[in-house]
Design goal:
Blueprint lengths: L22 E2 L4 E5 L7 E5 L4 E8 L4 E8 L7 E6 H20 L4
Antiparallel strand pairs: 1-2, 2-3, 4-5, 5-6
Length: 106
């Protein structure tokens, strides 16, 4: 009979930075690599800060997370997440924070 090998839980994942360069226009927009499949670049307004809100939605499997810019000037993005998906978002944010810390960011 073979013994079962118990593996440790996977370590934290690393969410890599988008490849550069970041281009900023005179109108306050940025051109950055697209996160959409097959996309090349995206033109979007550069905002500062972020606003978060949430509400429990068991009928959708967890919660709805609402995200806006820090000044609430842009439309809100609302996304349904399971608790597991929320935990992955948190891990991604921790990964970003660690990488920024390594770069000397504050």
């Amino acid at each position: 009979m073979r013994e079962v090998e118990i593996l440790p839980p996977p370590g934290p994942t690393v969410l890599p930075a988008l490849p550069g360069p970041l281009l900023v226009t005179e109108t306050g927009h940025v051109i950055l690599p697209s996160m959409r499949p097959g996309g090349a670049f995206e033109l979007t307004r550069l905002e500062q800060g972020v606003g978060l809100g949430w509400m429990p939605t068991p009928e959708l499997g967890g919660l709805v997370l609402a995200i806006s810019d820090g000044h609430a000037l842009t439309p809100i993005l609302a996304t349904a997440l399971t608790r597991h998906a929320l935990q992955q978002v948190i891990e991604d944010l921790k990964s970003i924070d660690a990488q920024v810390g390594e770069l000397g960011g504050r």
